[in-house]
């Protein structure tokens, strides 16, 4: 009985290490609210986006980083990486640069 309890505790801890509160909040939003949130985020970063036309969730990597692809009315397309930290730290990269760097391509699920 004891080995089962230890295994269960290990599984729960492993899942907690991959938690990403900011990604969970975005996933729970309506599509319109999510697009507005990304538009505000991109505007605050200085990106010329205007209206967000599409916010596509690509998935999470083994470290818990969440990846979203965002397409703007201005033609800009970016990949937003959201860290699993308490503040939801982000890194924004142009989709063309992401493809050149060998990272997961924008607008593809992984």
In short:
The protein is of the alpha+beta class.
What does this protein look like?
The protein has 110 residues and is an alpha+beta fold. Helices cover 42% and strands 25% of the residues. It has a four-stranded antiparallel beta sheet. Strand 2 and strand 3 (77-82) form a beta hairpin.
Mean pLDDT: 86
Question: Judging from the principal axes of the Cα atoms, what is the shape?
Answer: globular
Unreliable spans: 1-17
- Quote the beta fraction: 15-25%
Task: Note the gap between the termini.
Answer: 37 Å
Largest sheet: 4 strands, antiparallel
Instruction: Spell the H/E element sequence.
Output: HHHEEEEH
Annotation keywords:
single chain, 110 residues, alpha+beta, four-stranded antiparallel beta sheet, 4 helices, 4 strands, 25% strand, globular
SSE inventory with pairings:
Layout: H1 2-17, H2 21-28, H3 31-45, E1 52-60, E2 66-72, E3 77-82, E4 90-94, H4 95-101
Antiparallel strand pairs: 1-2, 2-3, 3-4
């Amino acid at each position: 009985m004891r080995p089962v309890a230890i295994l269960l505790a290990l599984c729960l801890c492993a899942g907690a290490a991959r938690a990403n509160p900011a990604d969970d909040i975005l996933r729970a939003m309506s599509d319109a609210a999510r697009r507005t949130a990304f538009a505000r985020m991109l505007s605050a970063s200085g990106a010329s986006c205007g209206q967000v036309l599409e916010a596509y969730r690509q998935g999470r990597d083994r470290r818990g980083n969440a990846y979203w692809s965002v397409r703007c009315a201005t033609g800009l397309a970016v990949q937003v990486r959201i860290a699993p930290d308490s503040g939801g730290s982000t890194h924004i990269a142009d989709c063309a640069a992401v493809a050149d760097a060998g990272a997961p391509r924008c607008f593809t699920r992984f």
